[in-house]
Predict the structure.
Amino acid sequence: MDYYFTISKLLTPLVLISNFLVGSLVISFYFGVLKNKIFFKKIFIILFVIFFVISVFPMGKLLTYYFLEKNFYKQIVPKNINFIFVPSGSQERLISAIDIKNKYKLEDVKILYSSGNPYLDKKNSIDQERLIINTIIENSKINPSDIIFLPEARNTFENIIRLNDYLLQIDKKNSKILLISQAFHLKRCLIISKKYNLNISGYASSYLTKNFSTGIVNSYQKACVTCNLSYIDRFFKESLSILFAKFSGINGH
């Protein structure tokens, strides 16, 4: 698992579509336009058209909706759950978990929170999420004892491993668990959970693709080239992570 964590973090900047396109555009422009190489000039034109399309049109948002979030738009909280599991990565996940626990009066249901720092160089990074999490707990209508902190994890695979290890430790492997995360991240979580034979349902804490306004004027107000690039980057990165999760060959206990 260490090799996967290290390689995935080192490769992240290289597999982002926007980074790849910008680098390729610079190289092809130099050889194709400045050096007048016909082959590179054709490559530059093709890459420029692709870059223009994904920058101006919300292609990444559409792909994210249809392939990552669509199946989680209609959701309910299952009955008789034993735990609510919150993998690290965003404080809104814990906020949503606390809200569900209070709203549905799940007094006997504990929240399992898998904390973690995703950076390779931990000495020069601060776990900002953990600081915010403590503030959330202190200011929420919840007993701190209702939140169990699992050992630190660095990525989604380790989040699920920490959960699996805890359930084995307390001899409750067959517990019914509600996993809270952003909608685009749930598909990967469920794939990994299946490898460990966990009884998990996914619940979205938020959506990247849900629109809270419609109409031409509102769409114009939200027009954003960098946002469109961010969507395509996130979709591509998440898709690669899903493929790895599916075909990695990692199996649970």
